[in-house]
Amino acid sequence: MKMKHLVAIGFGYSAERLARELAGQCWTITGTSRSEAGAAAIRAAGFNGLVFEGAAANDSAAVKAALETVTHLLVSAPPGASGCPVLAALGDRLAAAPALEWVGYFSTVGVYGDQAGGWVDEESPAEPTSERGRRRLAAERLWAEFGMATGVAASALRLPGIYGPGRSAFERIRAGDARRIIKPGQVFNRIHVDDIAGAVAHLIGAAGKSPPPIAVNITDDLPAPPEDVIAHAAGLLGVAPPPEVAFEMADLSEMARSFYSENKRVSNKLLCKGLGYRLKYPTYREGLAAILRAS
Predict the structure, then answer these.
(1) How many CA atoms lie within 13 A of 83 on its CB side?
(2) Angle between helices 13-22 and 193-206 (to 10 degrees)
(3) Where are the domains of the chain?
């Protein structure tokens, strides 16, 4: 079997999980960090770790060499005001990369904006209401243009709230800082990090067999109020749930408040029915139970 080479620009929580999903399946895995310490941590995890600071002027010989053999590119670096820094710094090199066949861009379901609790799918208009959502949508479009210009399969991978081992309601409850913030009618989608890895691996495997989706929602089956998740996690731990706090009275960061400004239910029909991916954790209930069992 031909060796494939995944380069993950921004080797964070989700990218590392994907790397572990692909490890041992004829894959070479390269991840980048903005610091040497981060690159060393990637190498300590068993993968190729490189420094990429996000500017062409600092493009190292090792990064150039990786792009000579890259077959699959995963981008999780956040966009700036002027677009995707990866395209700005490496676009020409990627366009000339001789073996590149697939690009996945980690985006957000925030591109759909506020839908007053209504359902959205990939056919719904992208109408972001936050600056974060607008920047992600702009970057999505740049990657779509890259795909059309080069013939490389390029998909925006739209993610909701991510949870998993070490990043779940359990940690907040154990730390004593969990709150059940009540905003009537508010719901969010979520996704377990293992389903991000599984879905992306599935999409990579399907690439070339059919036209790639321009965008795909990688999300669970059950949009739910955030207070329900906290209460369920407390029940699994056998402790009383934290008290309820009205949204208007909650001392939230600007970022957290921006999340609550958007209310929608995001469909995964394309991923699960159209593209044939089967979720490992269809709802937060299965996901939280698995995290607790493994802890």
Answers:
(1) 14
(2) 50
(3) 4-162+190-217, 164-188+222-265+282-294
For residues 5 and 27, what is the distance between their CA atoms, to the nearest angstrom?
Answer: 6
Instruction: Give the C-alpha separation, 12 to 125, whole Å.
Output: 29
Alpha-carbon distance 192 to 160, whole Å?
10
| pLDDT tens profile 151-167 | 999 999 999 999 999 99
pLDDT digits (tens, 9 = 90+) for 73-83: 999 999 988 78
CA pair distance 161, 266, nearest whole angstrom: 12
- What does the pLDDT look like over 228-279, one tens digit per residue? 999 999 999 999 999 999 999 988 888 888 889 999 999 999 999 999 999 9
Amino acid at 162: I
CB 100 within 8 A of CB 152: yes
User: Using the 8-state DSSP alphabet, how is residue 58 labeled?
Assistant: G
Q: Which CATH architecture has domain 4-162+190-217?
A: 3-Layer(aba) Sandwich (3.40)
Q: Looking up tokens 């079997």, which residue turns up?
A: 1
Contact 50, 38 (CB under 8 A): no
Task: Give the pair of three-digit tokens for residue 77.
Answer: 């670096």
